[in-house]
């Protein structure tokens, strides 16, 4: 997994910046009931999306992140509204929030047990009737059937812990019922061959050791593609909402 403390300074620029944040926040807010007064953004990162969530009138937003550097940057954007905390043990009492969001968190978790644990914590801090909103199927969204995807097709892949049907099951296990879905464009996240090689070197593809022969083979295949710096189409990300049963 990437070291998100070290990644913080380049994170926004390498992940679509403000346009992507605006699209993500709009999708999340479209699934948060109009009457919600409080929202917890879990794994808020640099706070780029969190700040836009906080732009809804009447919605008080809190961010939490485990990486100090990420949380520090988020706190600069939302003074007094960001805390350090582990998504597996959120530092809030039961029923503290009307809504909880996890944007690009679940896909980073180690397996079903940890993912279920995080969903359980999000459900715990929701009030009865509150809504949990999360991105799903992140890795699959990046496969836009481009020439890059053709080169990467033989890579080892496992069952994604954030696949929609799995998240549905984790949610049901912890008293959350399906309440809506949305999609949004990952502005600026279309891969180019050169940027994909950079991702290989940084360990973005978790089943490909960045210094090993497998990474070298894929890097060579990517280097042979035309238009090395031309991004392929942007991904379209999925979002699911779940309501906590009374």
In brief:
This protein is α/β, with parallel strands linked by helices and 246 residues long. The protein has helices at 4-14, 17-29, 48-53, 68-77, 112-124, 138-141, 147-152, 164-173, 193-202, 213-223, and strands at 38-42, 60-65, 82-84, 97-102, 126-136, 176-185, 236-244. Helix content is 38%, strand content 20%.
Strand content: 15-25%
Helix content range of the residues, please? Answer: 25-40%
Q: Could you describe the largest sheet, including whether it forms a barrel? A: 7 strands, mixed
CATH fold description:
Rossmann fold
Instruction: Give the C-alpha Rg.
Output: 18 Å
- What is the number of beta strands? 7
- pLDDT averaged residue by residue: 92
CATH class placement: Alpha Beta
Shape: globular
Tally of separate domains: 1
Content-based structural category: alpha/beta
Tell me which CATH architecture applies here: 3-Layer(aba) Sandwich
Kindly report how far apart the N and C termini lie.
Answer: 37 Å
- Strand arrangement across the biggest beta sheet: 3-2-1-4-5-7-6
Total DSSP helices? 10
Tell me the name of the CATH homologous superfamily: Vaccinia Virus protein VP39
List the secondary-structure elements in sequence, H or E.
HHEHEHEEHEHHHEHHE
* Unreliable runs: none
